[in-house]
Design goal:
Blueprint (H helix, E strand, L loop, with lengths): L5 H8 L3 E4 L15 E6 L11 H6 E2 L2 E2 L5 E3 L3 H4 L11 E4 L10 E2 L1 H8 L8 H4 L5 E2 L4 E6 L10 H14 L3 E3 H4 L11 H9 L5 H4 L9 H12 L25 H13 L10 H35 L3 H7 L5 H25 L1
Parallel strand pairs: 1-6, 2-9, 2-10, 5-9
Antiparallel strand pairs: 3-4, 5-6, 7-8
Helix pairs in contact: 6-8, 12-13, 12-14
This protein binds zinc ion.
């Protein structure tokens, strides 16, 4: 099998920047039955947004490329050009739809556990597992830019990583859980990886209160959530709508304080303009609810593109059908509705 092209739209539906590396479709030999996803860090230097791109696409001496199916870059503006916020941003790069040399030798036991839907809770080293197989043809590989020696994980990078894992839809584990030869992904144990995949991983840093004067990726993450929830305003009073807008400048100033107060206000809390753990939890709740609504809208748009012409059903009607359903239930509701539509059409034709 190969990575389906539909992942592009599904990732863009989640608001991610997606780049198709030249030649990605058809790169790498045919995969076998894919049973899981392996999460790696690149160990790339902090010098730029995507220092590992060339190696991941083309390989290195002794290991031919591609070295991953998906490559996620860090945000250049925070790591290297702090005076120029808004430049860079996290990108999801599709490198290869076929087999990539990312897993190498590792434990067949772990591959079996992934196939059974049970990612391991300990590393291969902790379990004393020997390398007994080479699983490149059975695992998607995601390489995420991180130097692996202390670079703090950017919440936006982890959010993109989780979204990719969700779209791929298979059990996820770390390289170090597959083979004791490896230590990646840096600083993330099995529980943390599961939280990244679920989209609710919180860095230790993020748990600390935030207030005017604070700077850094966690501030920008908060600012982007305020944009997404509609609380970010420009000096002229207009609402900021693009989450990539440079309003989110990683600097907790008066505009961020005001946006935070608006959020606290609508939520019936005392508007302090500061973020504590409780407010952060409420933000995650509000954002998750909004995300789910947007996912349903995106699903309606996809189903309309797919079925709209042949059934004459409008996007509004399809949206109505899936208004309160999960992704899976929505598909069933739409196919049931489609069956009805066909039945009516056939009936009309037969009785005409
Ligand atoms: Zn690795």
């Amino acid at each position: 099998m190969r990575l389906p092209r539909s992942v592009i739209q599904r990732l863009r539906d989640r608001g991610l920047n997606v780049h198709e590396e030249s030649g990605c479709w058809g790169r790498g030999s045919e995969m076998g039955s894919v049973v899981g996803t392996l999460f790696h860090h690149t160990a790339g230097s902090l010098t730029s947004q995507a220092p590992s791109r060339n190696i991941i696409v083309n390989g290195r001496p002794g290991v031919p490329g591609p070295l991953a199916n998906v490559y996620i870059t860090r945000d250049r503006d925070w790591n290297t050009v702090r005076d120029d916020p808004g430049v860079g941003d996290v990108w999801v790069n599709i490198v290869a739809d076929g087999k990539a040399n990312h897993a190498g030798e590792g434990s067949g036991t772990v591959v079996g556990e992934l196939a059974a839907g049970r990612p391991p809770s300990k590393t291969a080293g902790e379990r004393g597992l020997a390398d007994t197989t080479v699983a490149n043809a059975a695992l998607w590989g995601i390489e995420v830019e991180n130097n692996g020696v202390g670079e703090p994980w950017d919440p936006d990078v982890l959010q993109a990583t989780g979204a990719v894992c969700q779209v791929l839809g298979l059990p996820v584990t770390g390289h170090k859980h597959y083979t004791r030869r490896k230590i990646d992904p840096y600083g993330l144990d099995a529980a943390a990886i599961a939280a990244v995949v679920a989209g609710d991983y919180t860095t230790d840093d993020e748990e600390q209160p935030m207030r005017a004067g604070d700077k850094g990726p966690k501030v920008r993450h908060w600012q982007r959530r305020m944009i997404a929830l509609g609380y970010a305003r420009r000096p002229d009073g207009s609402t900021v709508t693009d989450w990539k807008d440079k309003w989110a400048d990683a600097d907790y100033g008066p505009a961020t304080t005001a946006a935070t107060k608006r959020f606290q206000d609508t939520d019936g809390y005392r508007p302090t303009g500061e973020v504590d753990a409780d407010l952060r939890d409420r933000m995650v709740e509000a954002f998750t609810a909004q995300r789910a609504a947007e996912d349903r809208q995106a699903l309606a748009a996809r189903l309309t593109r797919r079925f709209g012409d042949e059934t004459g059903m409008s996007e509004a009607k399809i949206r109505q059908l899936i208004a309160t359903e999960s992704d899976e239930a929505a598909r069933e509701a739409v196919s049931a509705a489609l069956a009805d539509e066909y039945a009516v059409t056939i009936q009309r034709r037969d009785t005409a």
